[in-house]
Each structure stands twice: as structure tokens, then as C-alpha cells.
Here is the input.
Amino acid sequence: MQNGTRKMMHLTLFLTLSIVLHAFDPGLNILGAKLGIAYIVGVIVLKWYGPKAMIGNNLMRVLLVSVMRGTLLSIPFYTSLAGVSLSTVVVIIINFIFQPSVLLLSVVSSIFHPLGQIIVISKIYSLNQVFILLPALLILSVITGIVTGIISTKTLDRLKRT
Here is the structure.
């Protein structure tokens, strides 16, 4: 198989996996927070194929999941898009400048995702009171970021050995 075809096949499989993981991501029943296990695929794509592939994977996941759920161009779509866009851009910039560990990238992503969502919700509803949720969400984000970072690191280590 040619390299271009192999890369496209891998990226398609990663996109499919991220959609499935997103669908089965357990909610934490605290402020609507989720573990964010689909991010594991995002960081693998970033490390293996670079920032463009990560952007494509994350944006396509949000788009396809919202189409499947029937929420395209609705408030949940825009909040999800804002969260994934902000976290992806920040992670790519930090990865480019500092080359940090996967664990740190996961924590950073987990922090910026709800921040993007809160910003969009505050603008849509003209409601700045939603920022009161931010401290609790940031604490949860650090915890979930550590969990997904550990899983991402172990997954990348295993994939490198194969």
C-alpha cells in the first residue's frame, strides 16, 4: 500500500475510533463534565501525523457526531465546536513551542475545552454568570486531563512498539 493511502486509511480509522469513543464517553454527572476519552485519539494523531491531521480529526468528529445526534448548527454543536477548537489550537501552539509531555498536553486540552464552551454559552445567552462554574470545571478538567494523559501516554508507548 502506498504511503498516502496508508496515511488516509489510518486517519479514517482514527476518526472512526474517536467518534466511537466520544459516543461511549462516560458522563461524570458533575456540571455536565465528561472524561474526554476521544481526546486520546486526538493526541495520537497529533504526535503521529501532525497538527493539520489533529485539526481535521477533531473538527470532523464534532461535525459527524452532531449530524448523527441531530444537533448540527444548534447550541450543543456550537459549544462543542468552540471547546474543541480552542483546546486544539492551544495544544498545537504549546506542542510547537515547548514539546511538552503528552500528559501535560492532555491537561491543557482539558482546561481549554470547557473554557471555550463557557465563552460561547455566555455569548449566546448574554449570561456572564456561567463563568461562576469555571473554577469547578477547571478542577475537574485537571483530573480528567491527568487520566486521559496517562491513557494517551500508555497507548502511544504500546503503539510505538508495534
About this structure: The chain has one domain: 3-161. Helices lie at 3-23, 38-49, 51-69, 75-98, 102-125, 134-161. The chain has a mean pLDDT of 93.
